[in-house]
Design goal:
By secondary structure, this protein is an alpha/beta fold. It folds into two domains: 2-99 and 208-282, 3-Layer(aba) Sandwich (D-Maltodextrin-Binding Protein, domain 2), CATH 3.40.190.10; 102-196, D-Maltodextrin-Binding Protein, domain 2 (3-Layer(aba) Sandwich). The protein is built from twelve helices and ten strands.
Length: 286
């Protein structure tokens, strides 16, 4: 009954055009979240932004009703532990980015494409998984350790700076090695020469996408039809998110500033989220 109630009432009782939007406190989530926030502001909303907390702390606040909308909810796997028992309170409204996965990566010159290929060719590789540290990516460390154990390898975790430095050094020696990391991330941009293996072995076959989720009561009370349509259509994509993440994590912009920069450079795309289209022939090609 709850979904029917939402569609019956949405747009009729938006109270004060104020909404609280959250995302996990990770830079790639934050930049995409600010694109969504700017869209709601364009529709006349005052937005409270909660983007400094880990998902461990944020989702209980969402379930408690303190946050109305969450962007970048990694489903159906990564963030399900905090949400699967509360699906009567919220619904999936849209998709911000197409993949939020933990991956195994190898140098492109290693010549393999799938995780099963790595398992078969393990004797050709250094018997270690290099992982991002637990503070940066807890799931990278866990899955990297589990995979290393399954092969009789060791696992070593390092911070992003050391990860990037070591990857470049080892590729310079033409070494065959494996890493555990994640998408989307500025690290995927900076570590050129590594490729992600196809996930044909558990748990690497569990793929997620970054969803927008909204509470039923918040949607009924706060979201207009225009706002719900925007939240359903706002898709930023991993390529854009990773480029914004470079601007934040490497070049020092705030997530808000990186999002504003992206919107300015991609105005036609941003406008399309609202159903506003422009004459493509009017574009100045350079």
């Amino acid at each position: 009954m709850a979904p029917k109630l939402f569609f019956a009432l949405v747009g009729s009782v938006a109270s004060g055009k104020h909404v609280t939007v959250g995302c996990p406190g990770v830079s790639f989530h934050q930049v995409a979240n600010w694109v969504v926030v700017r869209g709601l502001e364009r529709l006349g909303y005052t937005v409270d932004v909660h983007d400094q907390e880990s998902h461990h702390d944020m989702y209980p606040r969402f379930v408690a009703g303190e946050i109305d909308v969450v962007t970048g909810t990694d489903l159906p796997y990564n963030h399900a532990p905090w949400l699967w028992n509360h699906t009567d309170q919220f619904f999936v409204m849209g998709t911000v980015n197409e993949a939020t996965d933990i991956n195994l990566g190898v140098p492109s010159y290693a010549g393999i494409e799938k995780v099963s290929d790595l398992v078969s060719a393990k004797d050709d590789f250094t018997n270690e998984v290099l992982s991002l540290d637990e503070r940066t990516c807890p799931a990278c460390r866990k899955q990297g350790q589990d995979f290393a154990d399954s092969l009789g390898w060791t696992m070593r975790q390092v911070n992003p700076t050391d990860f990037l430095s070591e990857v470049q050094e080892r590729m310079g020696k033409n070494e065959k090695f494996a890493v555990s990391w994640y998408v989307p991330s500025y690290i995927q941009v900076m570590a050129s020469g590594l490729v992600n293996l196809g996930g044909d072995v558990e748990p690497w076959s569990r793929h997620n996408s970054g969803k927008v989720v909204a509470r039923y009561d918040s949607a009924n009370d706060k979201l207009t039809g225009d706002a719900s349509n925007f939240l359903a259509s706002a898709f930023v994509g991993n390529d854009a998110i990773q480029k914004m993440d470079v601007r934040v994590s490497v070049e020092g912009l705030t997530p808000k500033a990186a999002a504003d920069e992206w919107i300015e450079a991609n105005q036609y795309t941003f406008d399309s989220f609202f159903g506003t289209l422009h004459d493509p022939d009017a574009l100045q090609l350079v």
